């Protein structure tokens, strides 16, 4: 289960199937150097993405 305090790069490495969700929300996290340090909550806030909607979509994408 993905939570708001997880590091973005860890999410993408552990669950590559989430990449389309990041793209759907216009988050190019896979290209960002800060993704290795940034939590999902912080990244969503910076990009003005509703964290609840993002987490729901990411968790739905998990295999």
Describe, in plain words, how this protein is organized in 3D.
There is one protein chain. The chain has one domain (8-61). The protein contains 4 helices and no strands. The protein has helices spanning 8-14, 19-24, 40-46, 51-61. The radius of gyration is 10 Å and the shape is globular. Helices cover 49% and strands 0% of the residues. The chain has 63 residues and is mainly alpha-helical. The N and C termini lie close together (11 Å).
Record the SSE blueprint.
Elements: H1 8-14, H2 19-24, H3 40-46, H4 51-61
Structure keywords:
single chain, 63 residues, mainly alpha, 4 helices
Order of helices and strands: HHHH
Class by SSE composition: mainly alpha
Task: Tell how many strands the DSSP assignment holds.
Answer: 0
When the domains are counted, the total is: 1
Q: What integer value in Å does the Rg equal?
A: 10 Å
General shape: globular
Alpha plus pi helix count: 4
The main pleated sheet reads as: none
Outline the low-pLDDT stretches: none
Cα end-to-end separation: 11 Å
